[in-house]
Amino acid sequence: MDGFDETQGEPAGARAQDHLVAAARYLQAGRADLAERSAREGLARFPEDPGLHAQLAASLLERDLHREAAGAARDALALDPTHRVATSILGAALAGLGQHQAAERALLEGLRRDPDDPELLRQYGALLHKVGVLDKAEQVLRRSLALEPDDESTNQALAILLTELGRSHEGALHGRHALARAPDEALSHVAMAVAEFQRLHPLRARAHLREALRLDPDSDTEEAFMHVDMLTRWPGLPFYWWSILADRLPGKQFTIWIAVMLSLRGASMLGAPIPVVGLLGIGYLLFVLYTWVAMGLLRRWVRWFPPR
Q: CA-CA distances (angstroms) from residue 266 to 98, 261, 285, 288, 294?
């Protein structure tokens, strides 16, 4: 990215703020490694600066080094217990380590000091979503969004959450808002893909996941892309439609089975020829057999015809 020289040394007399600004610019440019280096160089000269510790934690978190990020965030909070950024990073890092109760304590402590901090609210909403407290997660995320309506991260989180709650059309609205604000962020496309997949637009979901992979080749995104790509092949589309339909019905596939049995019984009672009723029954059984073997068939199909 223009404006970054990895070999350029720090100017004489640089302040802690200079290191902070440099690290933040590197992080924004997607160079968490250089952000970490800049923060560590600053800490070598200003070890008592909580902002540099927090910036180091942010760069480590960006690289999914959760344990190290939590340690750096705690160092920042030891110097400044009210440091908002360090509190947010500590909560996210602990959540990444699976220490959900510790993450909740850290975030609630920050919200006790400032209940209207949108970043802490967003992190808390994400934590609630992760542990399955979906209704409360929505409330917290909406509160965060009310404070920062154009925040792309909160819109991304709401797009995924609302889709999971069965409200994919609402989710798509937040996904579009996130895309408008941050079209070059992979998570904006992932959020939109989640909504589009549930809105019966699998090809759009595939396109968004492909773009997300181009922007950030993440293993989870690649796995999601391969799954959606598999279902958008013509042998997989019936299985996709069946899965979405069954998931939306109370009782899921059992409800469909009852409806088919009642339809066959009704056709017989109404005098439909026995061969017709028999063909309908056999057709349904063949389709059920297809759904049982579909995933194995599709995996083979993808091996024979990999995505391009």
A: 53, 8, 18, 20, 30
**pLDDT tens digits, one per residue of 189-213:** 999 999 999 999 999 999 999 999 9
**Which residue in this structure is represented by tokens 């154009």?**
150
Closest C-alpha to 89, from 59, 46, 113: 59
User: Can you give the pLDDT at residue 264?
Assistant: 63
CATH topology of domain 115-232: 1.25.40
What residues have CB less than 8 Å from 154, skipping those under 6 apart?
118, 122, 125, 141, 144, 145, 148
Q: Does domain 12-109 have CATH number 1.25.40.10?
A: yes
Q: How many CB atoms lie within 10 A of CB 102?
A: 16
Query: What are the structure tokens assigned to 34, written together?
Result: 């250089």
What residue spans in the chain does CATH classification 1.25.40.10 cover? 12-109, 115-232
3-state secondary structure of 202: helix
d(CA 91, CA 111): 12
pLDDT-derived band at 12, boundaries 50, 70, 90:
very low
* Per-residue pLDDT at 274 exceeds 80: no
Residue ranges in 3-147 assigned as alpha helix (H):
16-28, 32-45, 50-62, 66-79, 84-96, 100-113, 118-130, 134-147
